[in-house]
């Protein structure tokens, strides 16, 4: 900004020097220049006299200038005085506009909307004033004639050449103002949507009635179907994130089999707690390296669905679903509708520490171990940003946000239903039950026949299942292995 102000001052000096070196003569009188006061004329003439005393002009040029004015000691003719008044008004307008523009820039940091509006009005007003003076100048040029008209035309052309960069700068400023206005409008819309999402609902009776009438338009059956379709979206998001994570592991030359064994160890601990007789080893039964993605997806889903049965994923001790269940169900469904069409990256850029943002922080740190992140990316920069309550702008974290949003929406829908769906997960080593489970792979016997059924057991769970209030079942996805 200081550079712009310096260039602006240099422009004014160049215009002033051009006018003093090449005074304008032989110009017809403009009718609308009589509004300037006598005091301004005297001050301006004194300034010109002082400037002329400081400049060392060529003697021949001095004679030429004096001959144009009609004598060296005589006062300038009225026509010349009018031009001087016009130039004085131009300089005044430019000076005021420069100060207004500086004020406009200063109002951006810190952000001061009132000061910005005032400065904007001042800049526009001075631009209009300069435009009017420009029209007067052009009319004066068109009114000149004869030999002096040629000299005046040369001076006008030179002045237009000097002012041209300033006019170009004004056009650029206008374009910048339009861009800033568009950005402001966009941010206002985002803020409005985000505020609606994070706003705590009013407990007044009137507002509660309005929300009931809005929410009761969704029947129980469509809500269940909506939950089932949202679960499908969560499955797809889980597959996408797992595929990206597995490709990064392979690019980092991970031992995929060792990674599967570590997942098996974690899974077997939970399985032994729930089913002490479960001792089946499934690592060697994984049919091909490509099926390691299911073990990795199992790990991701186990982490991100942990705490799903609590209204805030155990991020705090809230009991709203118990103390005020009807209001809590309405709030959850309202948040679901507000958030469904939102880009999670844009939402978290405005409200990084909202409830959903805290959920993302917690789950990212749970899924991505520090050693894993350092191995995949070479540093812990993303983890540092998350610990500082910032959301990284990376492809990996963006894919994670897609999964986090899908699970968060599913959670909001679950707590907006009455009763909420029951969350269950198949245990390692459990007998396969087609009513509640579906296999992610098809394991065949040596003679080509299917062995899915009594001869198969759960090697490890891939994704959880849900039992919805109307009796429908969303099956849990499992990886099956033959029974020993």
UniProtKB/TrEMBL annotation:
DUF641 domain segment(s): 80-199
Region of interest (Disordered), ranges: 50-78
Record field: transmembrane: none
GO biological process, one term: response to red or far red light
UniProt keyword list: Coiled coil
UniProt cross-references to Pfam families, sorted A to Z: DUF641, GIL1_IRKI_C
Compositionally biased residues, Acidic residues: 50-61
Coiled coil: 163-190
Residue ranges annotated for the GIL1/IRKI C-terminal domain, each copy included: 424-479
InterPro entries per UniProt: DUF641_pln, GIL1-like, GIL1_IRKI_C
PANTHER family found in the cross-reference section: PROTEIN GRAVITROPIC IN THE LIGHT 1
Name of the protein in question: DUF641 domain-containing protein
Species name: Salvia splendens (Scarlet sage)
């Amino acid at each position: 900004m200081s550079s712009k102000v310096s260039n602006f001052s240099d422009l004014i000096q160049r215009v002033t020097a051009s006018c003093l070196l090449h005074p304008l003569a032989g110009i017809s009188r403009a009718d609308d220049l009589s509004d300037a006061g006598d005091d301004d004329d005297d001050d301006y003439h004194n300034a010109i006299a002082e400037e002329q005393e400081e400049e060392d002009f060529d003697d021949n040029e001095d004679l030429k200038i004096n001959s144009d004015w009609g004598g060296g000691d005589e006062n300038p003719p009225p026509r010349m005085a009018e031009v001087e008044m016009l130039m004085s008004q131009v300089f005044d307008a430019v000076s005021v506009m420069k100060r207004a523009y500086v004020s406009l820039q200063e109002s951006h940091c810190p952000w001061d909307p009132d000061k910005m509006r005032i400065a904007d009005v001042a800049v526009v007003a001075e631009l209009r004033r300069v435009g009017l003076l420009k029209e007067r100048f052009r009319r004066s040029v068109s009114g000149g004639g004869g030999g002096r008209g040629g000299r005046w035309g040369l001076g006008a052309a030179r002045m237009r050449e000097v002012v041209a960069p300033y006019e170009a700068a004004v056009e650029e400023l206008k374009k910048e103002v339009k861009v800033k206005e568009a950005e402001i409008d966009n941010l206002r819309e985002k803020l409005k949507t985000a505020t609606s999402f994070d706003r705590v609902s009013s407990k007044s009776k009137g507002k509660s009635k309005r929300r009931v009438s809005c929410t009761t338009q969704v029947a129980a059956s469509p809500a269940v179907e909506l939950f089932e379709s949202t679960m499908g979206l969560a499955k797809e998001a889980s597959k996408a994130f797992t595929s990206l994570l597995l490709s990064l592991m392979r690019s980092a030359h991970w031992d995929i089999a060792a990674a599967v064994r570590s997942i098996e160890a974690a899974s077997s601990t939970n399985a032994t707690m729930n089913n002490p007789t479960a001792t089946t080893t499934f690592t060697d039964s994984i049919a091909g390296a490509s099926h390691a993605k299911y073990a990795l997806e199992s790990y991701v889903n186990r982490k991100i669905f942990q705490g799903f049965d609590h209204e805030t994923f155990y991020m705090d001790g809230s009991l709203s679903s118990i103390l005020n269940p009807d209001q809590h169900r309405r709030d959850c469904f309202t948040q679901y509708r507000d958030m469904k069409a939102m880009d999670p990256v844009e939402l978290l850029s405005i409200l990084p520490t909202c409830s959903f943002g805290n959920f993302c922080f917690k789950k990212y740190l749970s899924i991505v171990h520090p050693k894993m992140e350092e191995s995949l990316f070479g540093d812990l920069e993303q983890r540092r940003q998350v610990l500082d309550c910032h959301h990284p702008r990376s492809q990996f974290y963006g894919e994670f946000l897609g999964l986090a949003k899908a699970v968060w929406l599913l959670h909001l829908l679950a707590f907006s239903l009455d009763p909420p769906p029951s969350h269950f997960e198949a245990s390692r080593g459990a007998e396969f039950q087609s009513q509640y489970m579906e296999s992610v792979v098809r394991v065949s016997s040596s003679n080509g026949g299917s062995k899915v059924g009594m001869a198969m057991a759960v090697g490890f769970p891939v994704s959880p299942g849900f039992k919805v209030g109307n009796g429908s079942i969303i099956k849990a996805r499992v990886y099956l292995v033959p029974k020993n």
